[in-house]
Amino acid sequence: MEDESNPWPSFVDTFSTVLCIFIFLMLVFALNNMIIMYDNSIKVYKANIESKTKSTAQK
């Protein structure tokens, strides 16, 4: 016997939907940052290897 004039169920439903969307966006944002950091670290690692091989070749 649910009272139709009670606004709480629809409010909770809206809140949970917004919360799910917010969590999903945060996950996408975090994943994107991880991919960017991984890509940058690979570039730095390759640059370090190339500079070390050049310095050993010059010796």
UniProtKB/TrEMBL annotation:
Q: Which residue ranges traverse the bilayer? A: 15-36
What keywords does the record list, in alphabetical order? Membrane, Transmembrane, Transmembrane helix
Q: What is this protein called?
A: Membrane protein
Question: What is the species listed in this Swiss-Prot or TrEMBL entry?
Answer: Salmonella enterica I
